[in-house]
Write a structure and sequence with these properties.
This protein is mainly beta and 459 residues long. It contains four helices and 34 strands. Strands 2-3-31-30-29-28 form a six-stranded mixed beta sheet, with no helix packed on it. Strands 1-27-26-25-24 form a five-stranded antiparallel beta sheet, with no helix packed on it. A four-stranded antiparallel beta sheet has the order 4-34-33-32, with no helix packed on it.
């Protein structure tokens, strides 16, 4: 694919004492479109081409789809060979191979979280329908066990343990880790008691792994943009924006806050810290390298970070330049050496996930500046190999006449992306297909091979 490509030398570790690059601030988007919002209606069902009008991005194939009933808290999770979904007052387990139903477990308006092995669900809804503090833990075979933690609002398995988040009203908000037999390993208060609290503060989401425990608050049903994080072993707070909100008088604290990346395939004992200001050797260690302006990390593996360099959309709207495209980069995790490709999209966002070595993210496609101003956009789930989008699946087209974005969610295993969209669950067909070598590069390689063969023959 003939994209614009480039290579950037990594920053010398000694540059940790150099002046910092332009500071990136947390961004909150508002207005008629999600993300400010960029993307477009693409008329015609064919393909999306690069900014230069060259090789197409292939649409992903659907392996199977099944209809779903509605849910108060729609969700989809993969546990072993089961893709589980919330439907009404039940969790329904379906086979990953074909979507056929395997089992049902009753939970009133369930709110659930998973560690990829088991699922933990807490009932919600009015007090007459929800049993306070009861947690239903569901195995891949549909077997269920019950636990009870007073005040529990969300819970997730973590190995044999449970991580529970709780607290309501004016009470403190807390997280705890409980071992089998109800032994409490730690309990951490993340928000103190507040008799004067004027807004309802609730736990909106809980995500656990061997590296960290992350949670998102919501106030009056408006979700906070940044999560808080705890160490899963000790329960100690990790430096995040929720723990140390950025203000103009705290630039260093802002730079030294962790960036939560859902797509993180590193081992739990990796000490390299992906932070708001760049990548450091550890949470308290020296900088290894720093982000460029407008560069946002979206995923990390044991060897590299994937980032998106966003165009100046505000400037384009104000007539200060053309509407550009987002660039996908990969950076060596330690050295910071980068390679990048200009994409066909105006922005990339998460939720994100790894499927083997393919990154699944969300891309926003906008035809031109007029479409941006009119709020016409398309949201794709995109599959990324290295720095190129190799497949896409359209999840939403939005126009001024049809401005509402449907709720949708994704889950993945080692081979497949599962999408819950409206009243439907579908699975994409296997891993993304490689687009193969670029024709120009291929011709250059053939020429080089021919020259080499001629030289050897002459010798």
């Amino acid at each position: 694919m003939t994209h614009d490509e480039f290579t950037i030398a990594g920053e010398d570790p000694a540059a940790a004492h150099a002046p910092p690059p332009p500071r990136r601030r947390p961004q909150t988007w508002s207005g008629p479109w999600p993300w400010a919002m960029v993307a477009v209606v693409l008329l015609g069902a064919g393909v999306v081409t690069s900014p230069q009008g060259e090789r197409p991005v292939l649409p992903a194939d659907v392996a199977w789809s099944v209809p779903l009933s509605g849910a108060a808290h729609p969700g989809v999770w993969v546990i072993d060979d089961i893709v589980a979904v919330s439907e009404g007052d039940e969790i329904v387990g379906r086979a990953v191979a074909d979507g056929d139903e395997r089992w049902r477990v009753g939970v009133r308006e369930p709110r659930c979280a998973s560690d990829g092995v088991r699922l933990a669900c807490v009932p919600s809804g009015p007090p007459s329908r929800a049993t306070d503090g009861v947690i239903t833990v569901i195995d891949a075979d549909g077997g269920a066990t019950m636990a009870e933690v007073e005040g529990a609002r969300l819970a997730s398995p973590l190995g044999e343990d449970l991580v529970v988040a709780g607290g309501t009203g004016d009470d403190e908000r807390w997280l705890t880790r409980i071992s089998p037999g109800d032994a409490q390993q730690w309990r951490t208060v993340v928000t103190p008691e507040s008799p004067s609290r004027s807004e309802q503060l609730s736990f909106d989401e809980l995500t656990v792994s061997g590296r960290s425990i992350a949670w998102w608050f919501a106030e009056d049903d408006v979700r906070w943009s940044e999560p808080g994080m705890l160490d899963p072993v000790t329960g100690e707070r990790l430096p995040t924006l929720t723990a140390a909100p950025y203000t103009s008088s705290l630039p260093l604290e802002f730079e030294r806050t962790l960036t939560y990346l859902e797509a993180d395939s590193r081992a739990p004992d990796s000490e390299v810290a992906v932070m708001t200001g760049g990548v450091a050797e550890s949470v308290e260690g020296a900088w290894l390298w720093r982000w460029d302006a407008s560069e946002e990390p979206i995923a990390v593996s044991s060897t590299e970070v994937t980032t998106a360099v966003l165009p100046d959309i505000v400037g384009a709207l104000e007539g200060e330049g053309a509407l550009g495209f987002a660039t996908l980069r990969t950076r060596a995790l330690i050295e910071g050496d980068a390679a990048g490709t200009v994409s066909d999209y105006r922005a990339f966002t998460c939720p994100c996930a790894w499927v083997d070595d393919t990154l699944v993210a969300h891309g926003y496609w906008v035809e031109d500046i007029d479409a941006l101003r009119q709020g016409r956009y398309r949201i794709d789930i995109v599959m990324i190999h290295g720095t190129e989008v190799v497949e896409r699946f359209e999840v939403e087209q939005v126009t001024a006449e049809n401005p509402r974005v449907r709720e949708w969610d994704i889950a993945t295993d080692d081979t497949t992306v599962y999408i819950r969209r409206g009243g439907q669950l579908l699975a994409l067909e296997g891993l993304p297909r490689s687009l193969g070598p670029d024709p120009v590069t291929e011709r250059q390689a053939e020429t080089a091979s021919s020259v080499s063969a001629t030289a050897c023959s002459s010798g």
